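[PROTEIN RECORD]
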Amino acid sequence: MLNRKQLQRYSRQIMLPQIGEAGQEKLGGARVLIVGLGGLGSPAALYLAAAGIGELHLVDGDRVEISNLQRQVLYKTNHRDKDKAQVAAQQLTAANPEIRIHAHCVMADEAWLSTLLSQQSFDLVLDCTDNLNIRHTINRVCRERKVPVVMASVRGFSGQLVSFDFRTNSSPCYACLFPPAAEQSDLPEAENCSTVGVIGPALGMMGSAQALEAIKLIVGLPVSSLNKLQLFEAATLEWRALALPANSTCPICR
């Protein structure tokens, strides 16, 4: 049952018929893992903490740099050279001291993620990384552990959003969309924020969209990016969606 303070804090969500007290209780009982605390992870984590997600695990092995501040809204100038995960945990705790927040100052790899997901039960993983290899790793581990995942990316003015519910065996996966062989290509790895640039508000849009889809999934509402690649063009403010069928030749889920 929600206490008086929670009823006050989350009142604007609770009054929504799609959420209500039952939905707020589901959010309060949820455990979410966020991998990457940069331009996507910052807004996603802020909105999930504010929404009352009961337990957040924050994963990032980087430290704050001055060049991050144009788009990574969790951090301030005085946070320079500090661990992102620790700073993020402090900022989110200040925003909502009622939730539990765990900082993991590590660069996640397959072994680390597999161990964490085998030791603890998560309702959802948010992939907020900007690296193709770790994105495929998150896809493999989440599918193996049957944990839903919401993924996003932004390059320049263009954003992508897609979700997979691996609790069902029929779900396609990220490798159906982008085959793992692409990990060996020089092009995707070269195109990231440090090489081609990125507009900050586009990251805010996509990170906020990740948080929205996470909330919807947890409370049982339809998830618009589920098995659909949602494409956003910040230059024109246009969205379009592409259905993502399962790939019968996918080496990960077939």
Remarks:
- Confidence is low (pLDDT under 50) at residues 182-190.
- The two ends are 42 Å apart (CA to CA).
